[in-house]
Amino acid sequence: MNCKLLIVGALLCDVMAMEAQTADVADSLTMEKMMHSLPEVMIKGSRPIVKAERGMLSYNMPQLLKQLPADNAYEALTRIPGISDADGSLKFSGNGVTLIINGQATTLTQEQLTDRLKALPAKEVVKAEVMLSAPARYHVRGMAINIVTKAHAGERLLSGQITGSWQQSRYGMGFGKGYLNIQHGKFGMDVQYSFRDGSSYSEVSHEANHPLVGNRIAYYDKTWKKSFGIAHSYRLGMNYAFAKNHRLDLSYTGTWSKYNANNHTTGTGVAEQHSDSHTYMHNVDADYSLPFGLRLNASYTYYRMPQEQLLDGMLLTGGGLSGTSRNLATHSRQTIRKWAFAADQNHSLSHGWGLSYGLKAQFATNNSFQTTLDKLGNVVPGASSSVDISERIWNVYAGFSKQLTKHLSLEASLAAEQYHSLQWNEWHIYPSLNALWNINDDHILNLSFSSNTEFPSYWSTMSSIFYPSTYSEIWGNPNLKPYSYYNVNLMWQFKRRYTLMAFASLKPDYSVQLPYQTTDRMAVIMKETNFDFDRTFGLQASAMFTIGKWLSGNAFIVGLCKHDKSSHFFDLPFDRKKFSAILGSTTSIKLCHTQDLRLILNPFFQTKSIQGVYDISPVFMLNADLRWASANDKWNLHINGSNIFNHQFDTRSVQGNQDYRMKVGQQWASGTITIIYKFGGYKEKKVKGVDTSRMGH
């Protein structure tokens, strides 16, 4: 019996190898003969979806997407266990992650990279490398995901994808995306285009018992916001593979958008608000890889956003006028220019050693202003300011990797960075470490450490005040300083399907925007300030599961202990601790055996949590996606429900003399129907394939 099992295992390995290499008729017939000749006892095998590589979790995305399909590269990342985007940005274990595409440095913001991934078909993603501590050679720090796309060099290829969607919420919005990939031997080109056009709806309400001169004044308002916008995003990328590991990539990315919004506020504060904004963004990236391990990169981004707002409002108390009215016209413009240059060298040395070193220089200018006029056309002093500053960042690093034993490897790096601007002129040292112990095929341990400094946004450091309503004021903070953070993670992965992770995060001088009710007038100030620290300790467990042929997916649970402390938040110091839990899942239910018809469910739940003075009520959101694909996968039809139960984020501050509540419904419940057509495919190879893998405010 044991001999039979060995024979069966060997035969199945041969079958799996042939499936991975070709799918022609001859091989199918050979497979059928083998299957008929197998003994009665069979052993089933499957490719691993995730494995540990150099201190990172490397996900085989084509394998993962067989179980949990996705339309675009961004959506594909949400299929990874532990990754969620409940608040509109990707998070892993409740912490933000930095996105990288093919390991390339760029001056694009994370929001702009996200837009690019949403236009990139999911089938173009080969793997996603989840790094608990990104090595210095990527020019990012902390948790990161490197998205590796397909390398088509050497192919003769013409393929693409066209997507059309209609989203219906309170109002309707249309979306369109197109992707074209052309490869002719050593030369390749890809074109992306996307647009959205239509209206969206959101709500926000405020409740307060305002402390005013020793009394309490009840306040309530509700704002309905209708936004209309049209946006176009486009990208042209070209590459040429001179030889193996010798490649040049050039790309241009652009965005043009126009939005206007009308807010109608009723309650204690009544107001009408109208705003218009435009966005212009141009980016050029160049990346040159040479056979001896040298990589050169240059990037330039130009970003401009002019905006106008008209506010006509009045504050009412006790049924009469309080004497507070705001009739304001605000004009603002932000213009950002960023240049970046990077050079990286990697060496593979003898005895399992690897060496990397390099440098990056980034220069940026920020020319921005805000001017606020009252109804008589006079400049409002506290609400008008301008900046014209330059910043300079120099970063040098060196790192090494070593295969210490057959099962134990180590990668470490040290980066030194000098940041110079009018506000700051500082040096920082950033160590990173990844230690991997591959105990056996079923058990892996990974220890990582990372550090970084987070700089405030350009707008948050201006000295002006912005008035979004008659009650709310958004204050800039010229004294705002960067904050550092340090992350330690210990991960245990077993059976290639289950992961346990313990982590700790320390953020001295952490900053975030918080509310404060003044006691001398009816106003709530929204201001970003530095804490003493923000500390988080937690545990995460995740698992991938398959039940029969009809159910598959992943699930995760995170337990967090958060500690926020600030000794100088206005006259309201706080020292708060809170335990919370996060649960999420992506589950695929196959509804038909003869058709590719499945239902994908994405529940997300978070218990009560804190952020500074805020208490954040429990969050529950559910997305559902009914998907059908034709037999040849050329046509896809999806019907999606987003935020089905129309959850609104509910926050409240009751520290000290404060009593302020805000409910935000930005992601309104919506239904979307999407049609996708895929065309083209691979042709016979003519040339041997090249082994390459690859500001807003």
From TrEMBL:
Outer membrane protein beta-barrel domain ranges (all copies): 294-675
Endpoints of the signal sequence: 1-20
InterPro entries on file: OMP_b-brl_3
Record carries keyword Iron-sulfur: no
Keywords (A to Z) from UniProt: Signal
Protein name per Swiss-Prot or TrEMBL: Outer membrane protein beta-barrel domain-containing protein
Domain of life: Bacteria
Organism: Segatella maculosa OT 289
